[in-house]
C-alpha cells in the first residue's frame, strides 16, 4: 500500500485587475506596457481591457501624469540628453505627443550642463575635441549644446 501524496489546494488564480494592481504597486507603468504585461501573463484581451478601464476610471492609471512625472525625474536627475529621455519614455509605452508635451521651451542650459557631466565622467580636458563631440552626439545632445559644453570643458583646463 502506497500512501497517496497529499495535494495542496491550488491558489485561486488572480484576476487581471489584481495582477495589474500588483504591478502598479511595484512600478508606474503606461497603459500600453501594462496591457502588454497582462497579455503576456495569459489574460484574455477583454479581461485586460476591463482591468485597465477600471484603473483609469479610479485614477490609478493616467498616462499623461505618469509621463510628466517620469520626464521631470529624468530631466532633473539624469545626465541623459532630452532626446534620450524622449526615446526612453516612448520605449516605456508613452505616446510621442505626450512625451513631446513635457519638453520645456528652452533646454539649452540643461543640455549643456548634462553634456558637461558626461564629459567630466568620460574624458580629460586635454582629450581630442572631435572624440568628445562625437561621444556627445551619439548620446543625442543638440549640436549647439555640444559645442558650448566642449568649449567650456576645455576652457576650464586652460584656466587652471
TrEMBL record:
Main location: cytoplasm
Pfam hit, one: RecX_HTH1
Domain of life where this protein originates: Bacteria
TM spans (from-to): none
Any one Gene Ontology cellular component term annotated for this protein: cytoplasm
Location of the RecX first three-helical domain: 16-55
The keyword Nuclease appears for this protein: no
Alphabetic keyword roster: Cytoplasm
GO BP terms: regulation of DNA repair
Gene3D superfamilies on file: Winged helix-like DNA-binding domain superfamily/Winged helix DNA-binding domain (1.10.10.10)
Localisation per UniProt entry: Cytoplasm
InterPro entries documented for this protein: RecX_HTH_1st, Regulatory_RecX, WH-like_DNA-bd_sf
Similarity comment: Belongs to the RecX family.
Protein name: Regulatory protein RecX
Amino acid at each position: 500500500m502506497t500512501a497517496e501524496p497529499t495535494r495542496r489546494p491550488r491558489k485561486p488564480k488572480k484576476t487581471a485587475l489584481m495582477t495589474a494592481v500588483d504591478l502598479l504597486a511595484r512600478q508606474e507603468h503606461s497603459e500600453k506596457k501594462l496591457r502588454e504585461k497582462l497579455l503576456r501573463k495569459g489574460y484574455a484581451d477583454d479581461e485586460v481591457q476591463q482591468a485597465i478601464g477600471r484603473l483609469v476610471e479610479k485614477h490609478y492609471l493616467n498616462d499623461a501624469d505618469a509621463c510628466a512625472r517620469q520626464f521631470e525625474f529624468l530631466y532633473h536627475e539624469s545626465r541623459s540628453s532630452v532626446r534620450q529621455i524622449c526615446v526612453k519614455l516612448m520605449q516605456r509605452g508613452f505616446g510621442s505627443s505626450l512625451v513631446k508635451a513635457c519638453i520645456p521651451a528652452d533646454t539649452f542650459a540643461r543640455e549643456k550642463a548634462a553634456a558637461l557631466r558626461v564629459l567630466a565622467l568620460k574624458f580629460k580636458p586635454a582629450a581630442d575635441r572631435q572624440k568628445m563631440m562625437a561621444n556627445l552626439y551619439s548620446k543625442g545632445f543638440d549640436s549647439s549644446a555640444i559645442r558650448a559644453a566642449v568649449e567650456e570643458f576645455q576652457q576650464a583646463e586652460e584656466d587652471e
